[in-house]
Amino acid sequence: MEEERPKIKLIPTSADKLVDLLGWIMLLAIWALTISHYSTLPDTIPTHFNGAGEADGFGSKASIIGLPFIATLLFIGLTILNRYPHIFNYPTAITQDNALRLYTLATRMLRYLKLVLVLVFGGIEFMTIQNATGKTAGLGAWFLPLTLVLIFLPLIYFVVKSVQTNK
Fold first, then answer.
1. At what angle do helices 14-38 and 66-81 cross, to 10 degrees?
2. In CA terms, which of 27, 85, 113, 129 is 20 to 30 Å from 77?
3. Are 5 and 99 in contact (CB under 8 A)?
């Protein structure tokens, strides 16, 4: 039987609160961007981009609502999940001695990932609107590599820090 992990009430730092606030602001900005440009979009818009950043799928302009909707669901879901760090998976065993440090690292990682998520979705939304209105073509070849770096570099950092916590 698995041992019960300590449940600790974490107090977010000013930096933690700032990252959360920036995420909420970006989420609202995605919705504002979408709503403000909806009426100017053509009936058919890009709905998918390949790995090279080229539009390779098209659909109705109503599909533009999908990205902010999915971003909102993910952001709120991760915000709720972040209140329960004792249920996360960790690379090391959780003890009374290391719980505070590991929970803090894990919740910071999720905060960062939430912010990256809305930045990526916002970038795709912005570029979709730019593509649909003929101002640009594609996302650019840089978009996928940048997105992967923004996601995986911090994940590696936080996992390494978590493993080092027990040493």
1. 160
2. 129
3. yes
**For 24-48, what is each residue's pLDDT tens digit?**
999 999 999 999 999 999 999 999 9
88-91: Cβ within 8 A, 24+ apart: 90/162, 91/159, 91/162, 91/163
Position 1 scores a pLDDT of 38
Q: How far apart are CA 46 and CA 140, in angstroms?
A: 14
CA-wise closest residue to 103 among 161, 17, 167, 19 = 161
In 72-95, which positions are buried (b, 16+ CB within 10 angstroms) versus exposed (e)?
Answer: bebbeeeeeebeebeebebeeebe
What does the alpha-carbon distance between residue 150 and residue 114 come to, in Å, rounded to a whole number? 11
Give the E-state strand segments of the chain in sequence order. Answer: 44-49, 55-60
Q: Taking the CB of residue 150, how many other CB atoms lie within 10 A of it?
A: 16
Taking only the tens place, the pLDDT of each residue in 1-18 is: 356 888 999 999 999 999
Model pTM? 0.88
